[in-house]
Amino acid sequence: MNTTNKLAIVTGGGSGIGLAIAEAFVRNGIYTIIIGRDEEKLRRACQQLGACSDCYTCDLSDLQAIPVMVQEIIQQHGHIDILVNNAGINMKKSFVDVTDEDFQAILQTNVTAVFALSREVVKHQLENGIKGVIINISSMASQYGIPKVIAYTASKSAIEGMTKAMATELSPYGIRINCVAPGFIATDMSAKALDADPDRKSKALGRTPMGHLGQPADIGAAVLFLASDAAKYVTGVVLQVDGGNAVGF
Q1: Rounded to an integer, what distance in angstroms lies between the CA atom of residue 208 and that of residue 247?
Q2: Per the database record, which ranges form the Ketoreductase domain (predicted)?
Q3: Rounded to whole angstroms, what are the CA distances from 160 to 17, 153, 190, 193, 237?
Q4: Which strands, in side-by-side order, build the sheet including 82-85?
Q5: What span, in angstroms and rounded, lies between the C-alpha atoms of 112 and 60?
Q6: By C-alpha distance, which of 180, 75, 71, 77 is closest to 121?
Q7: Is 181 in a helix, a strand, or coil?
């Protein structure tokens, strides 16, 4: 698990799964920069993470801000070794009520921003001969037909396709691209979706062989593995971390 002198960016790192990923990185000596829109939340998270961390406030849906932010990070820290594309937004709406604007807003943050940020980081890695790692965060929604989340489902399906295409193109240059697809994880976002819909929560747990929700730290551990040299021959995979939900019945 060699992580010496590595620097990582984790988007959406101020809370939930993103913060758990950042915590796993910091515990293993990876200097971690968390990115998000809520400056106060990021500052609190940085205090929690300690001296081996930093934060940048950025709305990733503003595509023009992404290259500027990446250049600022490089100028201040010198290099970017690991990128975790974790930031994402969801929307629960009936299919016929989703407007074009709703759909595009989800794709802008969950897909287009992921592409734009990855492109800027990869440019830097290629120019400097960095054997980098990019880890995209998908969702089991990409595997299932879940009602009332059409835009989110489309976005996460796109992320898994992008992961494979990026891995094929970039792995020859020593840049590994992988994806983690969390199952039902106990976060504020999942609580909103499940606690207000007892039938949905019962269905989710009923088909999960392990019988309980996962913890954000479970995703952090999986991402740490993929980011480390322990996974140096792993690229283009979509790793399901779901307590067996994908195979449960």
Answers
A1: 8
A2: 6-183
A3: 18, 11, 21, 23, 9
A4: 53-57, 31-36, 7-11, 82-85, 133-137, 176-182, 238-241
A5: 9
A6: 71
A7: strand
Q: Note the pLDDT tens digit of each residue in 9-35.
A: 999 999 999 999 999 999 999 999 999
CA–CA gap between residue 230 and residue 225 (Å, rounded): 6
pTM for this prediction: 0.95
Q: For residue 2, what pLDDT is reported?
A: 63
CATH topology of domain 7-186+216-239: Rossmann fold (3.40.50)
| 11-49 burial code (b ≥16 CB/10 A, e <16) | bbbbbbbbbbbbbbbbebebbbbbbbbeeebbeebbeeb
Which residues, 6 or more positions from 95, have their beta carbon under 8 angstroms from its beta carbon?
Answer: 147, 148, 150
Q: What is the pLDDT of residues 165-193, one digit of tens each?
A: 999 999 999 999 999 999 999 988 777 77
Alpha carbon distance 53, 47 (integer Å): 9
Q: Where do the structural domains in the chain lie, given as residue ranges?
A: 7-186+216-239
pLDDT tens per residue, range 144-158:
998 999 999 999 999
User: Is 226 in contact with 120 (CB distance < 8 Å)?
Assistant: no
Annotation marks residue 233 as catalytic? no
Choose, from 31, 152, 173, 233, the residue flagged as catalytic. Answer: 152
Residue whose tokens read 């929700």: 213
5 token code pair? 């002198």
